[in-house]
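Quick illustration, no need to memorize.
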Amino acid sequence: MATFSYRALSPTGEVRSGVLLVASRGEAMERLRRQGLTPIDATETATRAARVKAPGATARRALVNAIGELSVLLTAGLSLDRALSVCVENAADPVLNAALIQLQKRVKEGAPLSRAMAEAGGLFSPMACAMVEAGEADGRLALALSRLAEALDRAEALRQVIASSMVYPVLLTVVTGGVILLMLLFVVPQFEGLFSENAARLPLATRMVMAASHLVRDQGLAVLLGGIVVSVAAWRWLKQPAVRLALDRLLLGAPRLGPLIKAAETSRLARVLGSLVEGGVPLPTALAIARRSLANSHMAAAVERVTAGLKEGGGLTRPLAATGLFPTVAISFLRTGEETAQLPQMLGRLADVLDRDVRTALERFVALLTPAITIVMGLAVGGIIAAIMSAILGFNDMALAS
């Protein structure tokens, strides 16, 4: 998919301009004709999204608020220029403020809002640009912005649920590692002099604990640096498309993790696709754009094949079901939506159902993970203490026997 800026004549002879997210210039021309326009030209627009750092959580939340505010202002009857000016005054985040100033400048120059967003350096996703373009095409820009704000808000809410759910387990894991490290560095060495003369007679568990303590004290820095090098190498290796595809396929087949990933990815896809279709974006184009919201490359590749079939006149539900990657409930909702011509509504309901399932699964996972980490921490610390105490008691028994 690429961004094309176009100019076209309406049936009344009015010159219209805008931006399209399509695969080729020919597809852009054909889409304009289907909209009842006579194409004049369509030029691919180079965007800076690849060179701009992705917005952080604060910028994403501010962006959602700004889009919702812009929708309210347009609904109240303000012009787009004036509404953008108000949003600029209210934007506290510096990244968003600069982006809104640039948007206002481009709108004053006569560019459609969708094109200005596509040129905003990657702050706005292809989905956002397409939804705004659809709102401009059917004259309901305020409604399109409202739908966009809702879609982005739901996506951010799910992201925050996942992030906040993992805070306590991560902290507990760090504490566990720190306690074990402190014992190996400072507690175990206190007993080393006591055991030095009878090292060969120590129990196996005690010898293992002493060896681990020596390794941490003598080679700890080297092990840490080696771990960093291996981690960086593994991260770069996993960035390779073929490796990532294989890993994503493997994750989808994991007993409990796989269904959770499928539900989360399908929810995101349904939410974006429903918003695009409801905003007037043709289904093949909407699915191609919504595919970019998938983090799992194996599922994204499957959706890409379905998109190609849609462009050739195929359906949606049956090809998605044939991939075997989407939950049964998703196929049921899609089939109902296609048969009743209520696909956007069914996609929205599907996303709600899957969001609830994902939240429930995450809550259960965290509820099980926290005591599991606590048990592991207790076993590790208790194992170290037991290894030391067994050696001490062994020496006492030998002393009494003699």
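The first strand starts at residue 2 and ends at 9.
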